[in-house]
Structure formats: structure tokens, C-alpha cells
Specification:
- By secondary structure, the chain is mostly helical.
- The protein has eight helices and two strands, in the order ααααααββαα.
- The protein has a two-stranded antiparallel sheet with strand order 1-2.
- Strand 1 and strand 2 form a beta hairpin.
- It is globular, with a radius of gyration of 22 Å.
- The termini are far apart.
């Protein structure tokens, strides 16, 4: 079996389990997965610059990239909003057209930064990481509340991703050799260039924030409101009843 496809297949059971555990987040997980699968042709920018993969049908993009995009997009969203997994976000705030329009600015910021970094002579890996950071900075400036979505993907999804890479390498020891674009900074950990660790860390933080922005979702805020709402109402009721209780006293 081709190495890249092996890596993707290893992660599919986790994707299935994530959908089982997702509760009210399944619709957004599906949209997040399909959205990144639709963006997966951008992988052609990486071919022979950042890595060279063995796709079933060859070329710089293939079904493996789409499957990886769906797996990454859906699972990293659930990880980011895990405390809100039981809630069912309303997707009626924005139309498809509005969501696409909201997605343009962060994508443009990332691609423009990547192009500028490449023009300055920076290797493709670091240029792509700079693009991630620029898009994320745009999102956080527009919506500082998105900061609450960053920690879990960094602490949970990133180690999971490299566990899959490690398992794939155990099956196909040549797998780390895919990252051989010739434009790396030269530092490697566990056979992988340092760019791969930084790339995945920034991508895992960026994508849930991007989805929340494009769909105008506030999942963790809504979860907190649902969690504390009844108690707050009860306290408000006690406060309102307090004067009447005191008036009833002799």
C-alpha cells in the first residue's frame, strides 16, 4: 500500500470515533472536514518544495490529500470545541455565500504573507508557517474570543498527528524521507524537519478559528451560557424574591 495512503487510513478510525462522540457538533465537523478537503488542492504548492508524496495516481494532489483534509478538519474542530460538544450550534446566522465571503480575508492574508516571504528568499516551509500566523493574527484581531479555541488543538491534536506519523514510519521506515524539499532550515527532530512541527502546530490552531469565523460561531461562549444559565436564573429569582420575603416578616 502506498505510504501516504497508509498514513491517512491509520487515522480514519479516530475520525469515525470523533463523529460518534461529537454530539451536537457533527454538522459543523462535517462542514469543517469538507471545507478543508475542498482546500486540499493547495497541497500542489508544497510538492517538491516541502515534501514529495507517493500518491496513487501521482501528481501534486490526490485523493489522499482530500482524505487528510477531511480527517484533519473534522477532528481538530471537535478537539477545539470539546467542552461544547453536546451543544448544537445554529448555522442559520450566515448563508453559504456569506460564509465564503468571510473566508476570503484570512485566506488572502495567509497567501499574501506566504508570497511575500517567498519573495524575500524564505524557504517554503517557513513561508507557509508565516502564512498561517498571518491568517491567525487577522482572525484574533477581528475576534479575540477565538483565543479560547487554540490550546486544545495544540495540546491534543498535534501529539496525535505525530503519533500517526510515528506509526506510519514504523510500518514504512522511508516515510520521513517524504519531507525532502531542499528548503528547510536544517534542524530535524525524530527524522522530521522542524518546519513540520511548527507547520502542524500553527495549522491546528488556525483552522478551528477559521471555521468559527467563517460560520460566525461562538461555541465555547454558548456552552458556558448553557452551563451557567440555570444557576444564574435561580440566583436572579432569589434576588427578586428577597424583598418580598423581607416584607412578609413581622
Amino acid at each position: 500500500m502506498p505510504v501516504y495512503l497508509t498514513a491517512v487510513i491509520i487515522g480514519l478510525p479516530v475520525v469515525g470515533l470523533a463523529f460518534v462522540l461529537a454530539g451536537g457538533q457533527r454538522r459543523v465537523m462535517l462542514i469543517a472536514g469538507l471545507g478543508l478537503a475542498a482546500l486540499s488542492p493547495l497541497s500542489m504548492l508544497y510538492e517538491n518544495r516541502y515534501w514529495t508524496a507517493d500518491r496513487i495516481f501521482g501528481g501534486g494532489w490526490g485523493i489522499e490529500d482530500a482524505l487528510f483534509g477531511f480527517s484533519f478538519g473534522s477532528v481538530v474542530w471537535l478537539v477545539a470545541v470539546w467542552p461544547a460538544r453536546a451543544t448544537c450550534p445554529s448555522l442559520m446566522k450566515v448563508t453559504v455565500r456569506q460564509a465564503l465571503l468571510r473566508a476570503i480575508a484570512p485566506i488572502a492574508a495567509g497567501l499574501a504573507t506566504l508570497a511575500a516571504a517567498r519573495g524575500a528568499g524564505i524557504g517554503f516551509g517557513m513561508a507557509a508557517i508565516a502564512g498561517h500566523c498571518a491568517a491567525l493574527a487577522y482572525l484574533l484581531i477581528r475576534r479575540p474570543d477565538l483565543l479560547s479555541l487554540l490550546a486544545r488543538p495544540l495540546l491534543v491534536y498535534v501529539p496525535y498527528y505525530f503519533a500517526v506519523v510515528g506509526l506510519t514510519t514504523a510500518i514504512h521506515p522511508a516515510f520521513p524521507g517524504f519531507w525532502a524539499g531542499g528548503e528547510f532550515v536544517g534542524t530535524a527532530f525524530f527524522g522530521l524537519p522542524v518546519e513540520e512541527f511548527l507547520w502542524m502546530a500553527t495549522a491546528a490552531m488556525l483552522y478551528p478559528a477559521f471555521v468559527a469565523h467563517a460560520l460566525d460561531l461562538h461555541p465555547l461562549r454558548r456552552a458556558r451560557q448553557q452551563r451557567h444559565g440555570p444557576a444564574s436564573d435561580h440566583q436572579a429569582g432569589d434576588h427578586q424574591q428577597g424583598p418580598r420575603r423581607r416584607e412578609a416578616l413581622p
